[in-house]
Amino acid sequence: MSNYGVDTVFEWGDFITAFWAFFVNLPLVTFIHQLGHYLMARLFGGRSEIVLGRGKQLFRIGAVKVNRFYFLDSFCHYESLKVNSKASHILVYAGGVLLNLFSLLLINILIMSNTLPETSFFYQFGYFTIYFMFYSLFPIQYSEKHASDGKQIINILRNKSASNIFD
Fold first, then answer.
1. What residue ranges are annotated as transmembrane (predicted)?
2. pLDDT tens digit string along 63-112?
3. SS (H, E, C) 35-63
4. According to the model, what pLDDT value does residue 126 have?
5. How far is 87 from 152, CA to CA, in rounded Å?
6. d(Cα 87, Cα 20) in Å, to the nearest integer?
7. Can you tell me the distance from the alpha carbon of 73 to that of 51, in angstroms, rounded to the nearest whole number?
8. How far apart are CA 85 and CA 90, in angstroms?
9. Nearest to 38 by CA among 99, 87, 85, 102
10. Which of 114, 141, 43 is nearest to 83 (CA)?
11. pLDDT at 18 over 80
12. How many Cα atoms are found within 13 Å in the side-chain-facing hemisphere of 167?
């Protein structure tokens, strides 16, 4: 209890939880999202690359490039789908949300079966996953060449061109 007779909103022990949330959990959810785009693009015969973060490149493993500020931003770029149809492009854009949803369901099943413990780490994973899914599908144009996955899907359905870069 604080000096004012009420519990504090944020205590010193919460810094560890925040560290795990922003430097491990959120980047993990972000990677899973981008991996969904990557896998769908590869499924349809395209070339694809995942970039995590901003700043100077720290390392690269295959098609995944990790930058110094890996926790700030991410994107997936694809090109040259061999199966070049509206459906394939829609599925590539939906791939991030689909893999996020699958990972969320898997974590919940593993917790319900007592294979994984109920911890704040998995709670945060679920929260960030839902956050990512919602904002990815929210149809918004961020800039002239940059739109959310939901907006890109709408553009494809309306016979407009979509860019090959995902958030």
1. 12-32, 90-109, 121-138
2. 999 999 999 999 999 999 999 999 999 999 999 999 999 999 999 999 99
3. HHHHHHHHHCCCEEEEEEEEEEEEEEECC
4. 96
5. 12
6. 37
7. 8
8. 9
9. 99
10. 43
11. yes
12. 22
> What does the longest C-alpha to C-alpha distance in the chain come to?
66
User: Which tokens belong to 74?
Assistant: 């991410």
Tell me the residue type at 62.
G
Whether residue 5 has pLDDT greater than 70: no
Give ∠ CA 8-71-144 in degrees, rounded to 5: 115
pLDDT at 4: 55
Run of H or E including 166 = strand 165-166
Roughly what angle, to the nearest 10 degrees, separates helices 86-112 and 149-157? 140
Give the pLDDT score at 38: 98
What's this model's pTM, rounded to 2 decimal places?
Answer: 0.89
pLDDT tens track for 134-155: 999 999 999 888 899 999 999 9
Q: How far is the C-alpha of 39 from the C-alpha of 125, rounded, in Å?
A: 21
Q: Please count the residues of the chain.
A: 167
149 neighbors 48 (Cβ within 8 angstroms): no
